[in-house]
Amino acid sequence: MREMTKGANVGLADLSDDAGSVIASLSWSSPTGDGDADVSVLLLDAGGKVRGDADFFYYNHPAAADGSVQLLGKTPTDGGSEDRISLDLTAVPEDVERLVVAASRYGGSRFGDLDDLRMTVADRSGEVLLGFSIGDASVESAFIFGELYRRGTEWKYRAVGQGYETGLAGLATDFGIDVDDEGENETADADAIADPVDGEGAAPAAESAGPAQPLPAVPAQPGPQTVAAEQPAAAAPAPAPKRPRARTAKKKVTLPAVATKSLAENDSWRAARLFPASNLKSDKEREVRATSVLLSVMAQVPEFGRRLTAAFGAPAGRMQTFTEVSLPHGETPKRPDGVIRVERAGKLWTALVETKTNGNALKSEQVQNYMDIAARRGYEAVITLSNDVALEGSPLVEVKTDGRRKHKVALWHLSWAEVAHQAQMLIRHEGVGNAAHAWLLQELLHYLQHENSGCHGFQNMGPAWVPVRNGIDEETLSQGDPRAVEVVESWERLIRQVCLRIGGELGQKALPVQRTQRGTTALSRRAAHADRLCEEGRLAAELRVDGSPGTITIVADLRTGKLRTSVEIPVPEGAYPLTSAKRLMRQLAEAPADLHVETLVEGQSGPRGTLERLRPEPGDVLPRDGSRITGFRLSLFKSMGATRGNAETGFIRSVDNAVDRFHSHVIAHLAQAERRSRRTSAPEPRDTPVPAPAGA
After folding, report:
1. Is 404 helix (H, G, I), strand (E, B) or coil?
2. What is the C-alpha to C-alpha distance for residues 491 and 501, in angstroms, rounded to an integer?
3. Which strand (E) or helix (H) includes residue 671?
4. Beta strand 381-386 with 410-415: parallel, antiparallel or unpaired?
5. Mean pLDDT across the stretch 546-556?
6. Is the pLDDT of residue 188 over 60?
7. Which stretches within 511-597 are classed as H helix?
8. Contact at 8 Å (CB) between 175 and 673?
9. CA 552 → CA 389, 548, 596, 650, 655, distances in Å?
10. Strand order of the sheet with strand 338-344?
11. 452 Cβ partners below 8 Å, 6+ apart?
């Protein structure tokens, strides 16, 4: 791997023989685990400007129609998250000279609050070609991490590291994007950056995309390094704040969240399905059916096929898929469950697929055979697909790679939960090209969620679950027990799957929060968590969901058999305690009566009670000695499933239900109340504009 310094450049062809399609990754960490940023990509012409607003890619416009750019989303890392971008350089239009890769923060956050800012570029085999770290971030709210640019027929990378105090709005304006300013609100959405309108039939992208994050909306001033905000000079009355919306050139098709009314006479009538699952009996039948169903839909719905393969280095092109292909291997031919082929400009990209369903584990020997076959035949990848969720530092299968071979084969993994997540994101939130594609994805999603398909995702806490629970009950579990580490790994897989599911349902980013010290690894973090499990008998995790008022905490107490889901709500500085308590009761008017409300007194616990008891007397939640309150902790408790599986009485099902109930009955009400409060308290226009602070 080539380590880059600021301003340095290198030709991609010098680093890899196969750099026509690359994965750019932006990563960062935070001591608190809650630092976040959003990536964006701009396509620039020879003049250093976008050809149009459609050349700007961000979370509300994540992919190019030609497949040259696709934002792949975030994956959790040891101390933060990593955002990946698929860049098919062979598909970039000829009049595009540069691809700028940037990231931005919002809500007044700055990059100086984050650690380990870094960009890497990997080829389609997954081998990291180069890395660039930014160590001088401070007050900037947007950063250009790097750019890829043409030199003749070659693509090169330049480490940029340029910061903007004016956020994404300032950066985008610098490259020719039109940004609407919201004036006195001092914030704007990325929705303010408009895509081109194709005639009168254009529709707001908000119909198919999830809510945008707030972005600073201060005009940018170009500069070689940090760009400072400009103070407004006009003295004319400011107009009333307006809410701009993104526009899209072609309306995407999504399906309604609520199904249309059935015409069946009674519940015993079953709707005809394209992919029936009720007659599946054996594991082999489930694997064959699931592979064929998935691969056929990938080939027929380009948005979906591209979404699943772009992360593996596949180019944007014509896709064909096959099942039960016989390939020679020694004396006995091998039959991978599937083959994916993508053709672009006369070149083929090929991946072998090995599928497992119903919780069956991948076999190292089987995967090793396919890796060897792929290497000999010049194929690019082997993709494993199972109910399991991959974890960093904990491979699902062990394979050996022959370093003497010039051709490299990448090994990738998909969980069925991730497949369902991507399908749901497309048909519920982001949209696909036409109604037929949306219907196909809906049928696929129905099949994956059928109880007989075997594609329900991670659904077993593993063989160590029962011994660890018994050891905690009997107080015989000692620190350093490897079975506790196995349980912690299963817990992490479960939490990541919960994030995938809830993120797909809401159309929002949902990620687990990892609070780690600098220099720790995934293995050391899990070992420390396992030791705490042995000592305290509790598993704990945190989730960050966009649009939520705070971080959701989940604690599974194996001693008491209780699950606790909670969130901490801060109190505004200078607010009257009783006013804050009454306001909270109003926000929780529709929350469950058994919701526990606990007052936080300068980081410690204060008075507490159930919502049923506190609603008539909100003052009962305030400390009697007049101590300053810093916030409230809201919690729901639920009995924990006893078995290790996903049955109605299982632990996994109980965690899913606990998170669903807490989010829908508490978090959603708080977020809705906050949105109503912002609307009713919008500032009135003033005669004289108030200067915005620098860097706002």
Report:
1. coil
2. 15
3. helix 668-680
4. parallel
5. 91
6. no
7. 522-536, 577-587
8. no
9. 21, 8, 15, 22, 13
10. 318-323, 338-344, 347-355, 381-386, 410-415
11. 277, 278, 280, 286
- How far apart, in Å, are the Cα atoms of 683 and each of 50, 181, 241, 400, 414? 34, 15, 8, 63, 48
Cβ–Cβ under 8 Å, residues 50 and 116: no
- For residue 552, list its beta bridge partners: 543
pLDDT in tens, 261-283: 888 888 888 888 888 887 777 88
Answer whether 622's CB lies under 8 Å from 578's CB: yes
What token pair was written down for 684?
């009135």
Q: Are 151 and 13 in contact (CB under 8 A)?
A: no
Look at residue 76 in the predicted model and tell me its pLDDT: 77
**Banded pLDDT at 104 (limits 50, 70, 90):** very high
Predicted local distance difference test score (pLDDT) of residue 417 = 93
247, pLDDT greater than 90: no
Taking alpha carbons only, the member of 81, 31, 36, 34 closest to residue 551 is: 34
Rounded to whole angstroms, the Cα distance separating 454 from 450 reads 8
Strand order in the sheet with 115-123: 2-4, 128-134, 115-123, 21-29, 80-88, 69-76
Q: Residue 589 is encoded by which pair of tokens?
A: 């008017």
38 secondary structure, DSSP code: E
Distance CA 427, CA 255 (A): 6
DSSP 237-292: PPPPP-----B-SSPPB---SSPPPP--SSTTPPPP-SS--TT--SHHHHHHHHHH
Question: What is the DSSP annotation of 152-220?
Answer: TTEEEEEEEEEEETTHHHHHHHHTT--B---GGG--EEGGGBPPPP-GGG--BGGGTSPPPPEE-----
Q: Which has more pLDDT, 357 or 684?
A: 357
DSSP state of 548: -
Strands 604-610 and 2-4: unpaired
CB 422 within 8 A of CB 441: no
| Length of the chain in terms of residues written | 696
Per DSSP (E only), the strands in 438-492 are none
